[in-house]
Amino acid sequence: MVNWAQVRDGWFDVDRVPELLERVQRQDDAEAWKELGWRLVLEHDLVSPAGFAALPRLAPRSAEARGLAGRILERAAGRHGCDDLLAACDGTIAEFREVLDRHLRSRPADYLVSFRALLAVEEEYHWANALEGFTATSMAWTVLTVARVSRSSSVISGATRRCGRG
User: Fold this and answer.
1) φ and ψ at residue 59, rounded to 5 degrees
2) Which residues, 6 or more positions from 39, have their beta carbon under 8 angstroms from its beta carbon?
3) Are 17 and 36 contacting, i.e. CB atoms less than 8 angstroms apart?
4) What are the φ and ψ backbone dihedral angles of 41, each rounded to 5 degrees?
5) CB–CB of 88/49 below 8 Å?
6) DSSP state, 6?
């Protein structure tokens, strides 16, 4: 059990995160999710101690919970000073892996967010963060570009072989 009186969030408060977690568990409250995100994930690459402490109450609940838990885990490779809190979440992270795997098989609308979370769960932090900012459209564009380049290279290599240069 987490002693919230000793776990600070990104604004150095100890009492606000438990209140927000209660709010989002009772009802889907967009403002509470937004504030919770600000308090648990600092800037772009830092996570507060409360972020790891909140993981057991976040992981499988909803799209918002999966997204926030994923953002927390994406930053687990950083210097956060919370290795003990992260280690205490091993069971939660294993459960989250299973939830994400089942969820991704359903081809959800939040596929990219969930895939990035799964990468973080698998400790592929670099790749999870490298995909930040991608959208389904930009991902499709990237795949098409790679396919075009692959075709072009095969056409170029075929042409050089025919000319005796390959």
Assistant:
1) -40, -65
2) 9, 10, 11, 13, 16, 17, 20, 48, 50
3) yes
4) -115, 120
5) no
6) G
| Of 43, 154, 71, the residue nearest 162 (C-alpha) | 154
Per-residue pLDDT band at 140 (split at 50, 70, 90) = low
Per residue in 62-118, pLDDT (tens digit) is 899 999 999 999 988 876 678 888 888 899 999 999 999 999 999 898 888 898 999
CA distance 91 to 84: 14
Mean pLDDT of 53-70: 88
Determine if residue 9 is left, alpha or beta; phi over 0 gives left, psi from -120 to 50 gives alpha, anything else beta: beta
Structure token pair of residue 38 = 């600000």
pTM: 0.76
